[in-house]
Write a structure and sequence with these properties.
Blueprint: H1 12-40, H2 51-77, H3 81-97, H4 99-109
Helix pairs in contact: 1-2, 2-3, 3-4
């Protein structure tokens, strides 16, 4: 059986769950915009490439990231220690990979991974 936290600090496990769900929504909107602009821009073959085709191609590549955030959100709701630790790793990668990720990870996401109260 996986280790769980018995007591939480400021319900951060629920906040962390919402962060992962919010990231899934953000990625969906971002990749939807990318698919839209790819379908609007002219291509070299002069073949019309539809929005839905672009969106499906992008979502196939995005699906592992979506599944990762989905599993981490479920694990955070269940207060699983493994979910908290993997969330820290994911947010550390976000710090290195994206400039906006640096700001979001340091100021918002990483504090949400603290589940244990300071008294325990």
């Amino acid at each position: 059986m996986m280790k769980k936290w018995e007591s939480t600090f400021n319900n951060n496990h629920l906040r962390l769950m919402r962060v992962h769900i919010g990231l899934m929504i953000f990625y969906f909107i971002f990749f939807g915009l990318v698919a839209y602009f790819l379908s609007v821009l002219p291509n070299e073959n002069s073949e019309p490439v539809g929005f839905l085709k672009n969106l499906m191609l992008i979502m196939v590549g995005y699906s592992p990231l979506f599944v990762l955030h989905l599993l981490l959100a479920i694990g955070a709701k269940k207060k699983l220690e493994l979910s908290r630790k993997i969330s820290e790793i994911v947010f550390a990668i976000m710090v290195l990979a994206f400039s906006i990720g640096t700001i979001l990870s340091l100021l918002y996401f990483l504090p949400r991974t603290i589940w244990k109260s300071k008294e325990s």
